[in-house]
Amino acid sequence: MNLLEVKNLHAEVAGKKILNGLSLTVEPGKVHAIMGPNGSGKSTLSYILAGKPGYEVTEGSVAFNGQNLLELPADERAAAGLFLAFQYPMEIPGVATMTFLRTALNSVRKQRGEAELSTPDFLRLVREKAADLKIDQEMLKRAVNVGFSGGEKKRNEILQMALLQPKLCVLDETDSGLDIDALKIVSDGVNKLRAPDRSFIVITHYQRLLNHIVPDVVHVMARGRIVKTGGAELARELEAKGYAAFEQAA
Amino acid sequence: MNAEVRPIRTPAEQALIGAIEAARGKLPGDTRAKELRDAAEKSFAEGGLPHRRVEEWKYTDLRALMREAPPLASAPDKGAIEAARKADPFAGLDLRRLVLVNGAFVPELSDLAALEEGLTIVPLARALAEGNKLARRIGELQPKKYDATLALNTAFLNDGVVIEVADGAKIARPVSILHIHNGGAASTYARALIVAGKQSQSMFVESFVGPGAAAYQTNSAAEVHVGDEAAIDFIRLQAEGGAALHLSTLLAKVGNGAKFSLYPVASGAAVSRYSVSLNFAGENIEGRFAGATLLRGKQHGDTTMMIDHAQPHGVSRELMKLALDDESRGIFQGRINVHRGAQKTDARMATHALMLSDTAESDNKPELEIFADDVQCGHGATSGALDENLLFYFLARGIPRKEAEALLIQSFVAEPLEMIPHEGLREKLLAHAGEWLKARA
């Protein structure tokens, strides 16, 4: 069974049509990259998958693990195994990162019918995952993303991903705002999570990220739908030729 | 024909004047204290309670809200003192405790032993009776305009605390001034005077608690003198019982190069008003106001703050957060006056109200009055519901909506509380906000 099946998806935001008949199938264990120019609907797709309010699906369907994803509230989608790494992670003054991580992990475990983690077990798990991403303990004591650099915010997203053990990870321009070193750390973190039962949708403008996270499938998105699909070589072709040709084709 | 203007007094005003008359001669102090009380009585008899046509009281029409004036609280008996032992909201912290029960200083609950070098604390009633020199400074700080609540506090001047921190003294252990009400409907009028000498450092925490059902009234006032290059942190928790009327005044005068930070937290009383007037009289002052108000039910909570930047190079930051549920009404009036010649003043004020129901009301009134031409001043005011984008971030991590809301409200009110420089007090006040939230769910 395919992990994700998006069929003929049409969607609007505030009355404006953004997605125009998008179809996408993601198999378990695969990494799909979605590339495309600004305004092509990449982020909208990620928000619709994650269940952000304000996005209206007017036509089409999304099946996640055989379940109708669109009828689940956002927190239940997360518990079902969908994870969105935000392009702009929110700052939450007053909520310590540790508190946030623990609340999220225990909420998800509870909804999955698993026992909550004890404090020592939780701390051990966070320390281990944080070390992989070179996140120091001081950062975890601070309020979520407050005063974090761009790179720290993105690493924090990947840390959450590692803790929640999702089945499908949607990375929305995770490379934006990252320097070369941070890009390497984040990519290594993602690669470490690659598994036969875990899939990825990597949304990006640039080939750069795909040198680190090598995709199985590359899609080109323009004007609200996928206009071309190919292998990793398609990303290099795009980098050389640009999006213009595809935009016209759409 | 000349129409004679006869002030029509409300029953509460009549009762208050009656109570002042009745107390006259029974209150401690020398001629000066008597003169102070008499002058205050006179001004109250003329001015009466404020109403909504008095701009500073626009949103808190005390003449309408203060229907009755319960009798003066009597001195606490043994039972009241014993009960008060369990009422400390900061229990467990290492503080120097000064405890007032029903407006009277209680030595057996207070800690006056082994005062740090440079720290002087005298119960006000004793200071007045003994003609203590420091106590003669009470009334030195005056509001710019007639203020009924301060006038009443002065007219009943009887007990409280007088504290002096000597020049250069650094007092690490915070001084707690705990006001406990015990028993039924009664009125208390406590006063605190704090005189911090040059280059001294000290921290104070003032708190108010009382029973939920009694319609008692608290009127408290504090006068704070901050000497040149001194630093004071003043933390406050108003957690009065839900039927109480709480009126409180803070007057501070701050000297050259000094630092004064005020952290007022309020969640109690049916009706409350905190009037703050900070006179930044010296140059290079660093001021901070960081407050939080949490209201529910039909609570009415008013914080009115005025800062005068009178001299150059002053910096101040004001942040107020109000979380308003049910049919509560939260008010913040903040006014910054930059005087002529107070160049290079840098003052920024922000007030934010979080509306947790459709029926809550928030009145935010920021004001700037600037008479200098080389200053940086700004203010911002917002009222709104929880940020849906932030909520979505929680939901996207699997956190259910209700839990996400609780964490977000906590984070909203935590911002000013996080600035409290004492870890124990900060944690207690954050926990207090947490308890308030739990009661919401």
What does this structure look like?
The complex is a heterodimer of chains A (250) and B (441). Chain A has a single domain, classed as Rossmann fold. Chain A has helices at residues 42-50, 74-80, 97-111, 119-132, 137-141, 150-164, 180-193, 207-212, 232-241, 244-249, and strands spanning 4-13, 16-26, 31-35, 55-64, 67-68, 82-85, 92-96, 143-144, 168-172, 199-204, 217-222, 225-230. With 250 residues, chain A is an alpha/beta fold. The radius of gyration of chain A is 18 Å and the shape is globular. In chain A, a hairpin with a 2-residue loop joins strand 11 and strand 12. The N and C termini of chain B lie far apart (64 Å). Chain B has helices at residues 11-23, 31-47, 62-65, 78-84, 124-130, 148-155, 388-395, 401-418, 423-440, and strands at 96-101, 104-105, 119-123, 159-165, 175-180, 187-196, 201-209, 217-226, 231-239, 245-254, 259-266, 271-280, 286-295, 300-309, 315-324, 329-338, 346-355, 361-370, 376-384. In chain B, 23% of the residues lie in helices and 37% in strands. In chain B, helix 8 (401-418) packs antiparallel against helix 9. With 441 residues, chain B is of the alpha/beta class. Chain B contains nine helices and 19 strands. Chain B is globular. Among the domains of chain B are: 9-219, no CATH class; 387-441, no CATH class. The chains are: A alpha/beta (250), B alpha/beta (441). Chains A and B meet through helix 2, strand 7 and helix 3 of A and helix 7 and helix 8 of B.
